[in-house]
Structure of Chorismate dehydratase:
Amino acid sequence: MEKIKISAVSYTNTKPFIYGIQHSPVLEQIDLSLDIPSDCAKKLIENQVDVGLIPVAAIPFVPNAEIISSFCIGSVGAVNSVFIFSDVAVNEIKTVKLDPQSRTSNNLAKVLLKNHFKVEVAFTTDQTANTDAIVLIGDRTFGRKEDFNFVCDMGEEWMKFTGLPFMYAAWVANKPLHESFLADFDKALALGIQNIPTVIEQLPPITGIDISDYLHDKLNFELTVEKIKAKDLFLKYIAEL
Ligand SMILES: C=C(O[C@@H]1C=C(C(=O)O)C=C[C@H]1O)C(=O)O
């Protein structure tokens, strides 16, 4: 039987899901690759894979996109790995360098700066540019908060702006898949979330972040009705940018 090709995020935030997949029988049905989020999206959009843990901002670009799991990468308030870092206060930001690995958080920065902070800002993807602020996500943010005068946690600011939690990435398919596979896959993800203490024990030493606090209390993996509401609202704001 042909394996189901899956692209998942290569960051620490996805380790519980990987643990669950690797400790479940569904592993035998899967060809798993770990990629930066922007590549997870690219692979799913270009049909190089059947399922991706992809940035929610990329969902509208996936033909026949369907969210297939009751789990996601989310937060209820602060997430501690999705930031706008700057040395000037947010109302003084004029230029922002975007993170080439991100699709969701780059758009979240645009949405929040326009609608929440109400500042007009120029964005660049040129990584050599000198800007007032940068968007940075994932493991590369660990230990970086001390390097900047101003630290804006976008999960926290989204909550202040909308009163809602946030969904950064979702498990999305680009074609119909067997019900039995989907049930087994979701069970595998659930197993990973139930075993976060073991996942933490097995991680190599990580500095610059309290990894237990991050995986237990900042990240929030259940795909709730409120998070779907947040995703729909976020996509609406993106369409209005
Ligand atoms: C919480 C995070 O969520 C992520 C942010 C993403 C994005 O900005 O496109 C995509 C996938 C997730 O890894 C993070 O990476 O820190």
